[in-house]
Amino acid sequence: MLGLLLKDLKILALQKRFLIVIFIIFIAFMFTPDISGFGMGYLMFISSILALSTISYDRFDNSNLFLFTLPFSRFQYVLEKYLLGLVLGIVGLLIGLIFNIINFSINNIKIDLNLLYITLFYFSLLFLLLDITIPIELKFTADKGRIVIIIVLALVLLLAIVLFKLFEYLNIDIINYFKSLNFALVIPIYLVILVFISLGSFYISYKIIRN
To answer: Is the distance from CB of 109 to CB of 180 less than 8 angstroms?
Structure first.
């Protein structure tokens, strides 16, 4: 599986210009105080999505027909894609967090628990993002996969907007509500739910690639 990781990292290294553009846009977000939190999520999102591009490269000119003759199992192939997406997303999130702290220091903004809440939110979003996109990318061809991913993510975004509008209509301050929760109890339960969702997604991806 280490060989698969090295292969994908070498593929991503070929996209230097694209990565430079992403980083320039990220810097613009990070040093704009009002949207610096969005910049952190942007880098995490783009970093994790890069893992999906390696699936498209594996299919290029039917290269996967040769790829699967090499000494690794389909289980390892699927596991590597999840690990790659997770590692890239976490690295992007940590870079964003460091730049956020630097940005706050430069602008004399107090660092409080809100930054922790934002980081935890993006971390959980990373899991959900990979759980949704990897099975879709494995199931469909590159063009169809991107269309399905866009539709699914748009529906998720629409659902989030509807929920926030509903909370607003009912005069529910969702941020203060989360702050009032007992995180010592909530976080373990939340992590268990994320793990089960990820295991379900992994099983679906494995069945797709096995067939």
So the answer is: no
The domain locations on the chain are 2-210
Rg (CA), the chain: 19
Give the model's pLDDT for residue 202.
92
Q: Are 130 and 92 in contact (CB under 8 A)?
A: no
- Give tens-digit pLDDT for 165-203: 777 777 766 666 666 666 666 777 778 888 888 899 999
- Yes or no: say if 92 and 119 are a contact pair by the CB < 8 Å rule: no
Place of tokens 């630097």: 102
